Structure formats: C-alpha cells, structure tokens
Amino acid sequence: MAMIARLRRYLPMTERLDGQRFFTVEKGKRLATPLLGALVAVELADVIFALDSIPAIFAVTSEPFLVFTSNAFAILGLRSMYFFLSDMIRRFEYLTIGLALVLAFVGLKMLAVDLVKIPIWASLAVIIATLGTSVLISSRKTSVRPPDVLSGR
User: Fold this and answer.
1) In 3-state terms, the chain is what percent helix, strand and coil (to 5)?
2) pTM value?
3) Furthest C-alpha separation in the chain
4) Distances (CA, A) of 137 to 36, 58, 87, 118, 150
5) Residue 150 phi/psi, 5° resolution?
6) Which of 13, 43, 57, 138 could form a disulfide with 92 if both were Cys (CB 3.0 to 4.6 A apart)?
C-alpha cells in the first residue's frame, strides 16, 4: 500500500477501475487507474527479488554473463514461480528452514572468501542437499496427513 501511495505523489491516479485500462479520463484530465498502480507494484517487487538473488549467484560463480542472465531470468520468471510456490508452500513447510540454511551458507561463504576457497561443486552440493532434505522431510510429514480438500486446508 505504501508503494501505491508513493506512486500517487508522482502520477495522478483515480480511485476507480476503468475495465482493463491503465489510464482513464475524468473531468478532462488523464489519470492512471489503480490497475497501473498494481502493475507497477508487482513489477517493482520482481526487480527487488531479482536484486536480492545476486548474492546467491555470486556463491556459485563470479562470471558476469551468468550473473546477468540469471537475474534477467529471475525478473522474467519470478511471478509465475510465485504462483507455483504459493500453492506448494503448504506442502513443504520445512522449505523455509532449508532456504534459511542456504542463505546462511552463502553469507558465510562470502565472508570467508579470502580465508577458504570452496569449490563451486561443493557449494552446489550443499545447496542441493539442504533444499532436497527440507523438501524430503516436508513431503514425508505431509504424506502422513493429506490436506482436507473439502475444507480448503
């Protein structure tokens, strides 16, 4: 909501939607609709999440082309991945712990870059093992008690 309020400072915006239009005319003035505000908010969130993944890619490689392309693909694919993960997150309740451990590993690796040289294959092995273990433990737990489809839980 704060993002939309900031956007309203720079871009005059109406309170009502006008179908699927990003702009509308009210009292002779061209105004943005809340749909444009929502689009800007979603795209800005995509960029922020892509920038957030830069340290993770540096844990794997320092090749500039790979860093650039991985972030470009992150910007392009985050929204669809979000909808996929939002449905799957109930199944993998330990995935957040696994992701936290991966981020801690990446942070420690970046801090110790001058002291210890960790090979790329070892970093990938730690990341895959950590995420795989969290998914495996989660899937075993949720397979014991399947979700109640009728109640939506």
Assistant:
1) 65, 5, 25
2) 0.46
3) 66
4) 41, 28, 18, 27, 25
5) -70, -35
6) 138
